[in-house]
Write a structure and sequence with these properties.
Elements: H1 8-11, H2 15-27, E1 40-41, H3 47-56, H4 62-73, H5 87-96, E2 97-98, E3 103-109, E4 115-120, E5 126-133, E6 140-143, E7 147-148, E8 166-167, H6 170-184, E9 200-203, H7 213-224, E10 236-240, H8 244-253, E11 257-261, H9 267-273, H10 282-290, E12 301-307, H11 315-325, E13 330-336, H12 350-362
Parallel strand pairs: 1-2, 6-9, 9-10, 10-11, 11-12, 12-13
Antiparallel strand pairs: 3-4, 4-5, 5-6, 7-8
Helix pairs in contact: 3-4, 6-7, 8-10, 11-12
Length: about 400
């Protein structure tokens, strides 16, 4: 999909907004998913694109399903392992294509088993991905990045100190999940309810996914395809800091779970903590949550709320939060602030967090306090950052 094809009436975008987002996105486009020798990466292509590529080298349509299965169900990266395909065709495929993965430049495992990957892409840019195993069961979430850096500068977030370098392409987004599964040896894809180690995806890593919607949507469509990785939409959560016009579209087209980085219940404070609030203030954000199509009692919207000492953690804040989200099928994740080098905030006290959680819970909303994971390797929520920089255009 191309953002220029956005249906304005469906997305709720005005023409001016569409043009602005389009122009902004184009400046940060990922490089083509292609090697210097001209071979194209099959990972990240839609089924239709894959079919087109195979047709262009003279192959019949049924090959699409076969190749798709080998890439996304079996997880092979080498055409010679596609045993249902005859050797001459394997060789032909290898002449034209590759099955790519980002390079795991650094892999760190925390004392609590959280694992952080620094992935390096073909152009040398880097982003981080985190696997957070469930403490009780053999499953866990992969926290995926959608951009290198971020434009949004949320004050409590380490990524926000890194200027946006570029958007990640669909191949790079789905590639993070596939490379993490390589690392855990989790191929072929488990079927149905078979236990999976890497069982859910949370788009909560570096970047604002709704500012890179086309690539994120394409990657998630690949991940959800039943003949490949086959993750159900219920196992995918997209987190946004509140790009209101794109929330409707993501709900209608992807139907994945929604998480909203709320962090403050008054515009004045949210303007400071999440500067995007100046463009889409709380009333608009909450209205977009109320109409989010994939929300129900079984699939609640998650409000993420970082607990900052003396700033947003009072009982009044908790009561205002309850008032704001009344009637929305929702849960509130309370996140004790995870410090990073140079951060200006302090974590709320345990008492303040408990008091806050109780008010929210007594109002009928689940309000778990998220235990920090991977803090020792800077892998916890809000701590991701890489050294990638955007090169200045030549004068
Ligand atoms: S919280 Fe998300 S949107 Fe805000 S700066 Fe960090 S990565 Fe960007």
């Amino acid at each position: 999909m191309d953002i220029s094809q956005v249906d304005i009436s469906q997305s709720g975008l005005t023409e001016a907004e569409r043009v602005r987002i389009l122009a902004k996105t184009a400046r940060f486009n990922p490089p083509p998913a292609q090697l210097a020798d001209g071979r194209r990466d099959l990972v990240g292509m839609s089924r239709a694109e894959l079919a087109g590529e195979l047709a262009a080298i003279g192959e019949k349509p049924f090959r699409t399903k076969q190749v798709w299965h080998w890439i996304y169900h079996q997880g092979v990266t080498d055409f010679s392992r596609m045993s249902s395909i005859a050797r001459p065709l394997q060789e032909k495929l290898a002449e034209h294509f590759v099955i790519g993965r980002p390079e795991a430049a650094v892999v760190q495992t925390s004392s609590d088993e959280t694992r952080k990957f620094l992935f390096r892409f073909r152009d040398g840019q880097e982003a981080e991905t985190v696997y957070i195993p469930d403490a009780q069961e053999d499953r866990g979430a992969v926290c995926i990045s959608s951009q290198v850096g971020c434009t949004l500068s949320c004050r409590f977030c380490h990524t926000g100190t890194q200027a946006l370098v570029r958007n990640l392409g669909a191949a790079e987004i789905v590639g993070q999940f596939m490379a993490a599964r390589d690392n855990y040896g989790e191929w072929p894809s488990p079927r149905g309810e078979t236990p999976r180690l890497l069982s859910t995806i949370v788009l909560m890593g570096m970047g604002e996914p709704l500012y890179n919607y086309e690539n994120v949507a394409k990657a998630m469509t690949i991940v959800m395809d039943n003949e490949g990785i086959a993750l159900s939409r219920r196992r995918i959560t997209l987190s946004t800091s509140g790009v209101v016009p794109m929330m409707d579209r993501a709900g209608a087209e992807l139907g994945v779970n929604l998480a909203v980085s709320l962090h403050a219940v008054r515009d004045e404070l949210r303007d400071e903590l999440v500067p995007l609030n100046r463009k889409y203030p709380l009333a608009e954000l909450i209205a977009a949550c109320r109409r989010y199509p994939a929300a129900s009692n079984a699939r609640r919207i998650t409000f993420e709320y970082v607990m900052l000492k003396g700033l947003n953690d009072s009982p009044e804040d908790a009561r205002e939060l309850v008032r704001l989200i009344a009637g929305i099928p929702a849960k509130v994740n309370l996140i004790p602030f995870n410090p990073w080098p140079g951060s200006a905030y302090e974590t709320s006290s345990g008492n303040a967090i408990d008091r806050f959680a109780k008010i929210v819970m007594d109002a009928g909303f689940s309000s778990p306090v998220r235990s920090p994971r991977g803090r020792d390797i800077l892998a916890a929520c809000g701590q991701l950052r890489t050294d990638s920089r955007r090169e200045r255009p030549a004068a």
